[in-house]
What we know:
The protein is of the alpha+beta class. 42% of the residues lie in helices and 23% in strands. The chain has nine helices and eight strands. The strands form two sheets. It has a four-stranded antiparallel sheet. Strands 5-6-4-7 form a four-stranded antiparallel sheet, sandwiched between helices. The chain is globular and about 50 Å long. The two termini are 16 Å apart.
Amino acid sequence: MGRAFEFRKGRKMKRWSAMAKAFTRIGKDIVMAVKEGGPNPDANSRLRAVIQNAKAANMPKENVERAIKKATDKDTANYKEQLFEGYAPHGIALLIETATDNNNRTVANIRSYFNKCNGTMGTQGSVEFMFDHTCNFRIPNNNVDIEEMELEFIDFGAEEIFADDEDGILIYAPFGSFGAIQKELESRGIEILSSGFERIPQVTKKLSDAEIADVEKLIEKIEEDDDVMNVYHTMDESE
């Protein structure tokens, strides 16, 4: 298996399951998708993807519809995606994705977390190059021949396809291949259970238990912030 498989395996039962604000984050995704492409999911591929993710997260349909309606209100704040970079203790690079309606507040908060936990906030581009920006799709595993599917979808940018532990198939590709793969899956009538973007570290660093605790203290503080969508790092999470 490749790096995407190992990355997914290492993170699956850890931080993502602990981030309990999924509905809030999906709500922000809906606002950004509607502001960008309108409220009709048939004509807005980004909104379609967010609605699929909302369904996968068991977000009630009425919550989704309410969020779409709210997003069409001109008085609803628009969220801007902002990337922050820096280092946790022990040389672990951090990449932080945020969606904010007040950049000054978010900058001040992120900086304070680094300062309080002996980290260092970096400049733009200081660690982003250490991560591969990828997209992913999860589809049902209806007796799919994974090797055959890899051969078929390599033309659309797919780099890695593998089964997950929940009877699904995961497709990983570079960030820029999202639209082509989404379109091909839809044209084939293949249900997309969820989709999204991840940043996979190119190299990871093994730490002691005490060092891991230092890094996780900072990561957990950052993840508690309402503006934070995802936190990626270069700490080795393999068991």
